[in-house]
Design goal:
about 260 residues, alpha+beta, four-stranded antiparallel β-sheet, 17 strands, globular
Length: about 260
């Protein structure tokens, strides 16, 4: 009866040793579990989710003359069919009761988005030219990009006057522009830039010391412009304090 006792002790020790040997094996098994591999997958999925959740079919980014991004706007215009696509901008509409305003961004004549002339912090941007880049992410256009420029004047102080006389002219006639800062005529540092409705710069006119400048209805090459509406943009420097101001007026040319 006493004889098997040593045998059990030896067997028990060996069994215990084998059992302990299996314990690190369990640890290794846990390390090999693809938990860590799954973690990057979750992170990757969450990165994509905001793009999908935004639901933007178009994205419009607005840049100032320095190339700094002012705003990013989401568009949700669903375009049908395939073919040629054209981007256009509306005329900037300033607020009548203070600074600010809005401009519409269109694709094939359909409104994609409207920009309220504010930056990403909600501040009204300065008067000037802005570059609009529209990225169409729908399958119809094959993820195309369109670009246009526009002048906007969300800050329109009453102290600056800019007029055109007459504002409707024909062949052989001249339109005279006049610019004044608090009643003081603009000097030769101020210029007037003429644009057509497509946003193309046609001519640059220098003002005289009397704050006036004539336009003979020609472009920079001396060629007569076509009938249509034209935008005269004053790039003015206040002769009193050197401050820069932009202002715009429209004229009509008919043949």
């Amino acid at each position: 009866t006493n004889t098997p006792t040593p045998t059990e002790t030896s067997t028990s020790s060996n069994t215990s040793t084998i059992t302990d040997t299996h314990t690190p094996t369990d640890t290794a098994t846990n390390s090999a579990t693809p938990t860590a591999t799954d973690t990057p997958t979750v992170t990757y999925t969450s990165t994509i989710t905001p793009t999908e959740a935004s639901g933007c079919l178009q994205t419009v980014r607005v840049y100032d003359e320095r190339g700094e991004e002012m705003a990013s706007i989401c568009g949700n215009l669903s375009l049908g069919g395939t073919g040629t696509y054209t981007m256009s901008l509306s005329t900037f509409s300033p607020n009548s009761n203070g600074s600010g305003g809005s401009i519409g961004i269109y694709l094939n004549g359909q409104l994609v988005a409207t920009w309220n002339a504010t930056d990403e912090k909600g501040n009204v941007v300065p008067n000037g030219f802005y570059h609009f880049v529209l990225a169409e992410m729908g399958t119809n256009t094959g993820n195309s990009t369109f670009e246009r420029d526009a002048f906007i004047d969300p800050n329109h102080p009453d102290s600056v006057t800019f007029t055109a006389m007459p504002n409707h002219a024909g062949p052989g006639e001249t339109i005279t522009f006049a610019a004044f800062f608090d009643g003081v005529p603009a000097d030769g540092r101020s210029k007037i830039k003429m644009y057509n409705t497509a946003g193309e710069l046609l001519a640059v006119i220098n003002l005289t010391g009397m704050g006036t400048a004539p336009w003979n209805l020609t472009n920079g090459l001396g060629q007569p412009v076509a009938s249509g509406i034209y935008f005269a943009v004053l790039s003015g420097i206040n002769p009193s304090n050197g401050g820069t101001t932009y202002k715009i007026t429209k004229v009509l040319v008919t043949h």
